[in-house]
TrEMBL record:
Coiled-coil region list: none
InterPro entries: Aminotransferase_I/II_large, Kynurenine-oxoglutarate_AT, PyrdxlP-dep_Trfase, PyrdxlP-dep_Trfase_major, PyrdxlP-dep_Trfase_small
GO molecular function: transaminase activity
EC number: 2.6.1.-
Keyword terms: Aminotransferase, Pyridoxal phosphate, Transferase
Cofactor(s) it depends on: pyridoxal 5'-phosphate
Enzyme class: transferase
Domain Aminotransferase class I/classII large: 26-377
CDD domains: AAT_like (cd00609)
UniProt name for this protein: Pyridoxal phosphate-dependent aminotransferase
Source organism of this protein record: Kribbella deserti
Length: 380
């Protein structure tokens, strides 16, 4: 096995979902909804297959989808992109992240990522031959310390890998934090890869602000989105990159040799989905916010230390109030003892101490499923 793959192993999500199936547990581990996206878009994909969208689509994505992505960025954020030169359709955000890292990281370059980091970041940086430099978001509020971020930048730093709304903490970066990141990126001439897949899951009246909208950022930002989260079709693997023509060309160069193109029949369906009315996006967010409160209130009542998230569909808890000290041990014990699966934070850290007692739960599940998990957890 090549050195660059050492230590990557099996993703925690596959491991924990397999454990859930094996033990008949309620799976609040891996983040996927247990209700599929709107019927109209499922029907559109079926029609696309029947209509012959079954061969290689264009490399950058079908024109209708690129147009819809550009229109979405304009509608929600006032960001203007030329669909022909500034939009790339990818095989999920995962491919976009990997292709962006391959496009911008030279072997030995340092890439700064917010820790805890989504697991594919570590793998993507490793595949590109880069060196991961974490900046830790710490309990209880998981804010970004801009001084720490600044201190992490060295002469070898080339890329900042940012994620907001942030998985797994649920932090939504504030205008001030984003402004600080942008100023630093401009000052140190860094490329910023920004993973904004939970853009439509910001709660309590807050709003998502794309990093690309800050001064000096348009020309240095690789913005990444995904249909999987927003339309509850995680298995379709349709994501996208927006940026300058130079950025999109660079990422396309890597993407074309990773997968060449992305899922033909799903593309017209997602083009339609992106054009759904505000009622869809508002309804989706409101539904998830209610589920957040359902799970957070239930976990609080059971004695967990609950960090109510501002965004995403994950909640982080501290298991120490229940007498446990280690999240990995807790998550290994949980399926046997309670029939529930969750994800230990530790696997998302270099600095494992910061994540040791933390456990993540997904609430993108039917209310009955959340309730069943809580009933089971009461037996702990
Ligand atoms: N980034 C983050 C922060 C995620 O949580 C996920 C998926 N769960 C992805 C990227 C990957 O998205 P996709 O399924 O579109 O590849
Ligand atoms: N992003 C999802 C999560 O954080 C899982 C995606 C995956 O399994 N790779 O749970």
């Amino acid at each position: 096995l090549a050195q660059r793959l050492h230590g990557l192993g099996t993703t925690i999500f596959a491991e924990m979902s397999a454990l859930a199936v094996r033990t008949g547990s309620v799976n609040l581990g891996q983040g996927f909804p247990d209700t599929d996206g709107p019927d109209s878009i499922l029907e559109d994909a079926i029609q696309a297959i029947r209509g012959g969208a079954n061969q290689y689509p264009p490399g950058r994505g079908i024109p209708a989808l690129r147009l819809a992505i550009a229109a979405h960025q304009d509608r929600f954020y006032g960001l203007k992109y030329d669909p022909d030169t500034q939009v790339l359709v990818t095989t999920g955000a995962t491919e976009a992240i990997a292709a962006a890292l391959l496009a911008y990281v030279e072997p030995g370059d340092e890439v700064i990522a917010l820790e805890p980091y989504y697991d594919s970041y570590a793998a993507g940086i490793a595949l590109a031959g880069g060196k991961r430099v974490p900046v830790t978001l710490r309990a209880p509020d998981f804010r970004l310390d801009l001084d720490e971020l600044r201190a992490a930048v060295t002469d070898r730093t080339t890329v900042l890998l940012i994620n907001s709304p942030h998985n797994p903490t649920g932090t939504v970066l504030t205008d001030d934090e984003l402004r600080g990141i942008a100023a630093l990126a401009v000052e140190r001439d860094l490329v910023v890869i920004t993973d904004e897949v939970y853009e439509h899951l910001v709660f309590d009246g807050g709003r998502h602000i794309p990093l690309a909208s800050y001064e000096g950022m348009a020309e240095r930002t690789v913005s990444i989105g995904s249909a999987g989260k927003t339309f509850s079709v995680t298995g379709w693997k349709i994501g996208w990159v927006t940026g300058t023509p130079e950025v999109v060309t660079a990422v396309t160069t890597a993407k074309q040799f990773l997968t060449y193109v992305s899922g033909a029949p799903f593309q017209p369906a997602i083009a339609g989905a992106l054009a759904l009315g505000n009622d869809y996006f508002d309804g989706f967010r409101a539904t998830m916010q209610a589920k957040r409160d359902r799970l957070c209130d239930g976990l609080s009542a059971l004695g967990f230390g609950v960090f109510r998230p501002q965004g995403t569909y994950f909640v982080t808890t501290d298991v120490r109030p229940l007498g446990f000290t280690d999240g990995i041990e807790f998550c290994r014990m949980l399926p046997e003892k309670a029939g529930v699966v969750a994800i230990p934070h530790q696997v998302f850290y270099d600095n494992v101490e910061a994540g040791r007692p933390l456990v993540r739960w997904a609430f993108c599940k039917q209310d009955e499923v959340i309730d069943e998990a809580l009933t089971r957890l009461a037996k702990l």
